[in-house]
Design goal:
heterodimer, A: 107 residues, mainly beta, seven-stranded mixed beta sheet, 11 strands, 50% strand, globular, B: 120 residues, four-stranded antiparallel beta sheet
């Protein structure tokens, strides 16, 4: 199975900060990478698919990039509602695998 | 509106069995790939299994292969997960998830989850 490694596992940031989260795959996955946001007690929400495509309804401050093995999720300016945990998902082959998550906390 | 409602969770002893169900509405169920994803308390997301629209293609995570069985009944618009030989580490919230087959091909719609607790 492909291993997905996210970094950092957590970070502290302030409203308005630019935040970048990375995800590395143990083998090449083309651009078959998605990013999800999860808030406590809620189901995950798809933000980005195919590494850089913004899911409908997701604010444009979220962006994704990368291909092959290295990917990034960037929030250009953190809003209060963006404090959450973020997961990457490889959609390249089965079994699908998630990264371990990155918790974005308020500084 | 897409709705996915899981049921069947509860407390079960190690070695026991449980069958989860997911009732779907608001979309063409018989054309949709469906997944199960779980989340242990305080932990990350774990993809478990996928089933294609006509049940032709079925996949499992190594952690549940041979113990869990995914199935669906398109006439009843329902997805199932039969869980056997349950272990303490299977304790988690289990989510039913619909893949967006028509656009992104990513898991997009999630149920609210059902909690499975494996404990003696």
């Amino acid at each position: 199975a492909i291993q997905m490694t996210q970094s950092p596992s957590s970070l502290s940031a302030s409203v308005g900060d630019r935040v970048t989260i990375t995800c590395r795959a143990s083998q090449g996955i083309r651009n078959d990478l998605g990013w999800y946001q999860q808030k406590p007690g809620k189901a995950p929400k798809l933000l980005i698919y195919s590494a850089s495509s913004l899911q409908s309804g997701v604010p444009s401050r979220f962006s994704g990039s990368g291909s092959g093995t290295d990917f990034t999720l960037t929030v250009s300016s953190l809003h209060p509602e963006d404090f959450a945990t973020y997961y990457c998902l490889q959609n390249y082959n089965y079994p699908r695998t998630f990264g371990q998550g990155t918790k974005v906390e308020i500084k | 509106e897409v709705q996915l409602v899981e049921s069947g969770g509860g407390l079960v002893k190690p070695g026991g069995s449980l069958r989860l169900s997911c009732a779907a509405s608001g979309f063409t169920f018989n054309s949709s790939t469906m997944n199960w994803v779980r989340q242990a308390p305080g932990k990350g997301l774990e993809w478990l299994s996928s089933i294609s629209s006509s049940s032709t293609y079925i996949y499992y995570a190594d952690s549940v292969k041979g113990r869990f069985t995914i199935s669906r009944d398109n006439a009843k618009k329902s997805l199932y997960l039969q869980m056997n030989s349950l272990r303490v580490e299977d304790t988690a919230v289990y989510y039913c998830v619909r893949v967006d087959d028509f656009w992104s091909n990513y898991p997009l719609y999630w149920g609210q989850g059902t909690l499975v607790t494996v404990s003696s």
